[in-house]
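Two proteins were folded this term; both appear here.
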Amino acid sequence: MKNSPIVTILLATFNRAHLIEETLHSIIDQTYVNWECIIIDDHSTDSTKEVVNEYVKKDNRFSYYLKSVNYKQGLSGSRNYSLDIAKSRGAKFIQFFDDDDIMHPKKLELQIKPLIKDESLAFSICKYRHYYGDEVLKFDLVDEACNIVSDNLFKDFLLGKMTINSLGQIWRGDLILKYRFDEDLLYAEERDLYLKIFLCEKPKYKNIDYVLFYYRKHLISNTKERYDSKIIKMALYRLELNLFEFVEVNSLWDFFLLKQMLKKHVFFCFDASIYDELRKVIDKKEINLGYKKYLIKMVLSSYILFRKSMVKFINKV
């Protein structure tokens, strides 16, 4: 195992002095010993720094960094800082992790094996389950129902047919290190990034049918519980705009994406500028729409006329 590749764990933390020790212990207890853990502290105001530095002194596989001012406050900035450090180290495999969750002792061992064996795999992914802080974890290898199998990863992820927790994956470094999180997103930043990767890269992956990490549930464990509904809605809309821009810039249009963009940006939430862009996309030769092209144009023209009529009606009321 000494000659096995290093798994670089990227751990973001903020004010979790009371919880992070359990997380660090679960990393130390890994049966796969060839790892390094880069800990990014988002300027904690509690004793997180002191707690982490005790582990750094005892085990040189841990390294502590106070987030640079070049990165914005929040998880995305911390993740990006750690990705940049990992890139400078030439990291071959990347595991994201959080400061309040727990790894199964065999997480790294079981997930790195298929990546070593098959170089065509972009990542391996495991199952997880929620747990509460007072629960005693037995670390059995449990095969629980969790839908992370797909023939079309981008489509199923976009439509919500499958969910992926970012802590479940071990990524091949040469793929994930090409990308960065949107630091302006306070919510759904991982979904934003993974949609782009799944669409552009069409990655091949290996599903590990065991629960290999435990996602702690407590009062502020979920992003939805930290922000009000307005902030979440704004973030989700920005996510939609990010995806549209990514598809447009990289010329990734197909009929499925065109339909999704029309539904979201024209029929569900009208955006005049995106509508104009989508009209141009319909005429592009890169999408072979056939007779559907004329049907779509006819429906759009009828919808715009109806919308204008409704606006006039409301203005007169």
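Next, the second protein.
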Amino acid sequence: MINIIKINGISNCYPEEIEGTNEWYCCSESKVSFCDLYEAEEMVNKGKVFPGINCHLIHFPDGKVYSPFKMQENVYIEKPIWNNGELDFLVVNFNTRLLNILKYIPEKQKLEMLTELSLSEVKDCYNLKLEIMPLTLGRSGNDGFYEIIWPEKKNIAIGDTETVLFRDGDKLYLSEWYEDPEYNENVIVRDIRTGEIIEKYEGYLCRLPNNVYWKI
């Protein structure tokens, strides 16, 4: 028998599973049609007001909604990442020109500031996001480099069709697509200190709970 559970506290947004956990879902709420972080930045840079984007958490299986933030104009709250039992958020405040990285503890309904950075530390917000592990703020500027902004500063040369999957200590895992003539993907592992390729193989990596990845 189908069990339909009414979720209270959110509307007009669709829950998405957070990679790495089967307990938590998130949904983004906005007063305008969805836009990404870079599009919000462009709107503000043109002198317009970005209405804001908020993020709610939904716990499975009970369907309880947690709302750590309130929607604010010119504030963009990215979807969280699951990081060893905690939910980490990137919050970009275009009013204060600050990047905040925060940890949320649902059991305590408490937000903790991990670090605060000036928005001037990044060229722009294109592909700016959090990665694991350790927790890393980086961006792929589509200019042949992956830039680590925090907790260290570093540029790593990557291929034109490579995108970062995650970081595991000194290893950076990326996905590379190519057409020959059909669409295919490779997994590339680079040394984060030198940028050199350690390993490359055809296929995909799928993130599951408890730091498990399926290699396909």
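The first strand starts at residue 16 and ends at 17. The helical segments are 37-45. These notes refer to the second protein only.
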